[in-house]
Amino acid sequence: MGFFDILGAGNINKAVEECRSTQGALLVDVRTPDEYAGGHIPGAVSIPLPLIESIEDRVQDKDTPVYLYCLSGSRAGYAAQAMRRMGYTKVKNIGGIKGYKGEKELD
User: Fold this and answer.
1) Helix or strand (DSSP H, E) at 18
2) Residues β-bridged to residue 84
3) Which residues contact residue 85 at a Cβ distance below 8 angstroms, ignoring those fewer than 6 apart?
4) Integer Cα distance of 51 and 1 in angstroms
5) In a 3-state reduction of DSSP, which class is residue 13?
6) Contacting residues for 98 by C-beta, under 8 A, at least 6 apart
């Protein structure tokens, strides 16, 4: 599928750096609000999977690079599929925060 493949979650640490170096990219945590508050990747916005359609309120340009993560990568995969159905073209499931080695922010 290429660079922004729906289900190809890889190394989350490398992907976070890639996101940070990609102009205009958005990092999205699709876990529950409680999970997000308990610790998330710095710079990530919270859009829980059941509310993924609200991404349109934040990202109007459907060619914006969007990097999605959750706990293991499963919910991020579902979110990526939903976003593709909505017309987003540069969506990437980067896997689960449980593999993230960097610092985490608390809310």
Assistant:
1) helix 12-21
2) none
3) none
4) 26
5) helix
6) 71, 72
What DSSP assignment string belongs to 27-59?
Answer: EEE-S-HHHHHT-B-TTPEE--GGGGGGHHHH-
Listed in sequence order, the residues at least 6 apart from 33 whose beta carbon sits closer than 8 Å to its beta carbon are 46, 48
Rounded-to-integer distance, Cα 93 and Cα 73, Å: 7
Question: Look-up: residue for tokens 């710095």?
Answer: 42
Catalytic residues: 70
| Paired sense of beta strands 26-29 and 66-70, if any | parallel
The tens digit of pLDDT for each residue in 10-67 reads 599 999 999 999 999 999 999 999 999 999 999 999 999 999 999 999 999 999 999 9
Instruction: Provide the 10 A C-beta neighbour count for residue 14.
Output: 10
pTM given for the model: 0.90
How far is 57 from 35, CA to CA, in rounded Å? Answer: 22
